[in-house]
Amino acid sequence: MFEKITAVFFDFDDTLQSRAGAFRLYCSDFLSRYFPEVTGEEKEKKMDEMEEHVDGGYKSREEYWPEMIELWGWKNPPELEVLVKDFNENFGKRVVMREGSVEMLKELKKRGYKLGMITNGNSLLQNTKLDSAGIRELFDMSVVSDDIGIWKPDKRIFEYGMDKLGVTKEQSLYVGDHPINDVQGALGAGMKVIWMNYGSFEGQATEGVEGIRECYELLEILKGV
Question: Topology of 7-18+97-221 in CATH?
């Protein structure tokens, strides 16, 4: 099935990194800066609430922060624009890479595969994540949806990536966790797909698409190809 593959493209959040782990670090940092008097169990409770309301990152910041302000009864909070900027500037500085993900990327490079990154999100936030993770140099191309105004699952962003690497859809494999944005989007572009059965969409299998739970499994699948 993967004999012709010469390029492997990846999603970032909940594929190469634990988004939940990274967001937990951001929550702790945010509360330390805006609620320094809150500690211990009370801080843990607020962190839990921040995680519960963010909907895995798919809720807009403009909707998210007013919810938190109301929930906390936050008196005299910063302007919404300030909170949105804080999220986009500082969340990306906290990165929790999945175990073995960097080693996997290096091994794929060693085997001669071209590597691409195609991720949805705010330009500042996602690019900061890639820089903070220290993995950008491992990729032959990387694109954030906001950079070009095309968002997964639109097949054009996958075609953009393939064009940048000079590969065909038959030569391309995409690895991601989202059943629609990643799996259906890449399939719609004619790419082969491996579903990362991890994170917010764990257990939501896509029929006919092979799923993996650990990064090293991809190396096993491509072994000898």
Answer: Rossmann fold (3.40.50)
